[in-house]
User: Fold this.
Amino acid sequence: MVRVIEDMFGIAVNPMTQKTDQVRRFTLSTDRGMCVSIITLGAIIQRINVPDVDGKLEDVCLGYDDVAGYYRNQPAYFGATIGRVANRVARGRFKLCGKEVSVSRNFRDKYQLHGGFVGFDSVIWDVVGIHKDGVTFQHVSPDGHEGYPGEVTVNINFSLNDTGCFGMRIEARAKATTCVNITNHAYFNLAGHGSGRDTLLQHMLMIKAQKIVDTDLEQIPTGKLMRIRNTPYDFSSLVNLGKRIGQLANCPIHGFDNNYCVDVPPNRVQLVARVVHPCSGRFMEVHTNQPGVQFYTANNLPDEERGGVPNIGKAGAHYVRHGSFCLETQKYPDAMNHDDFPSIVLNPGQLYDHQVVYRFGACPKRI
Assistant:
């Protein structure tokens, strides 16, 4: 049985209205002890409590105890829903219906990242449905917002079941032709959200992909896909994450921030990634209908080992470089500028349908 409980998380100014509004929190929980909390600010996943093989609960999702924490630590995007277009848009420009579109360039005035200055992560979402197993949030992105044409209405259904599956179904419809590529930027550590780098490096990872999107040093796609078999980027079978990060020590980006081209048949939800923390027995599977997964190892968080001041999260936890990971389901970055990439164009009358399920569980403390 799933229970849905609502409480008030805080107050914030909604940048879409410039008015102060309540930030509501919805907690979905099961009889087995698992629970997930989502807040209306940014449609953020604020907490995921999961039992280990002995039944001990840990919160495995990075986040904050109050609204101020999320504002204080922007733009890390902890647990946030990202849109209208996730990831990067080269030069903040693209052609759509034969016309050049210019969108905001919020990253060093070079390109757009994660939807612009006021993306989906910054707005307060409306609650349009409370169900027996979850809740539905809605946001209406106006025509011209951050430079994108067409009004877009987005609904996200968050759900939980007794088998440890936490799901998101993201649907969007547009009133004019536009681009849509939404994701969620949750950071995970299956040993516990604040357990840091040492435990993150114990994790084992599998991603069902033979290629990644090739990028330049600014992480802008070149338009090519790079084969990764027998390279440090190859996670086609379960492999230790610490070993792989160590193999990238002399690379310009020390860590992973790559879009994996996963082997998913069109419009089918399928397993694309599996993560295991051997010491606790916890595992997480990612199932989706999206063709890409951005794998990120928190490279841009403070490096405490080199004197960086840690990001202070829930219950005073230190969030640091390589202390967590993201597996962000999406289409390929900068897809509107590459005809060979899966299209992110959404026309009137079409439905954008993005499904992702995170399945949590525990297995004996060995692989």
Summary: The chain is about 5% helix and 45% strand.
